[in-house]
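Long-time lurker. I teach an intro course on protein structure, and each term I like to show students one example going from raw sequence to a predicted 3D structure in token notation. This year I'd like something fresh instead of my usual example. Would anyone be willing to generate the tokens for the chain below so I can use it in lecture? Attribution to the forum is fine with me.
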Amino acid sequence: MPHSQPTLHRPAPIPGAVFTDAQAALEHVQAIYEAAVAHLRDKLAAFIAGRLPPGRVRACYPVVRVRIDSVVRPDSRLAYGFVAAPGLYETTLTRPDLFADYLRAQFQLLLSNHGVALEVGVGEQPIPLHFGFAGQTHVEGHLSLEQRQQLRDIFDLPDLAAMDDGIANGTHDTSAGQPLPLALFTAPRIDYSLHRLQHYTGTAPAHFQNFVLFTNYQFYVDEFVRLAHALMARPVGATADDEPPYTAFVEPGNVVTARAGAAAPAQTTGLPAARLPQMPAYHLVMPDHSGITLVNIGVGPANAKTITDHIAVLRPHAWIMLGHCAGLRNSQRLGDYVLAHGYVREDHVLDEELPLWVPIPPLAEVQQALEGAVADITQLHGYELKRVLRT
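-- Reply from a regular --
Happy to contribute to a lecture. Here you go:
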């Protein structure tokens, strides 16, 4: 006698739609995602209360896809916001609340650069139960031992096989007839990193800024914290040549210090961490996320790879490692800025992702940008700049 398939409890269906307006496409993504996570939360509450009917619970990520019949790039200088060849492209999406500005901008670029419509609908990739709570709930903490044992039979749980870096690493192989990837990271991969960021840094992903500093020296952290608190004590516009309008400073435990005279922060202020996390993060916040995040990565290139793997899903504009030079030339003095941006590969951290025959050379654009920034801050140029900056 054939086994009957278990009942599958899904959210009320939301039909897919086609859009030529980026904001409208984003709103449809938000509607699909919010309905999906609300469904998971409601069914978990029913499961905890013993009111869930027999069957499995499932909700899926929203997807966006675009069909490109021919590629005509309006500007060969573009670095993103376009696809390289004709075809059907698709990606799953998550946390449209967190990525709203980013998604809206990317949607608009696709619409502008290719002149085609965006298709938004419900995908086939299940949302793992734990990822439906944005790191705010310890799911198992509300369950009895028996319920924990039943969880996998009722809900979809995180599957590491769906969270690899094949797309970003260039090793992803699209099966015949399947859509090509439209983004570097899938929704499950993003959700996984968002949860790990809270664990590793002690701060919520929403606090991370678009400019990230990494360091492995506590004195840099101490100075950053001191400067940030001093800045928060000064009202915006207190001086004629006022600095950028930073509005808050966030420390591990999601402790938010608002700028003097600024409106109360939207996020609930947390509690100082009883002990620092593995890689504590500190955020000097601007309203458009163009502030500065500092992460103390501790010791070892493995830590650096781990944290950059996770911060990468936030698509920051830039990150820089702020270290401490191990030696001085005879022509250098303590306090000189040493610009080192080559990679020898002797730590073997990237060997599995990037073959040894792939060079990672210094980039002239990076060097020129950093040298220009030092010149702007120090107001030194030419020979005088060379006295404090070595490349």
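Some talking points for your students: The chain has two domains: 8-187, 197-390. The two ends are 75 Å apart (CA to CA).
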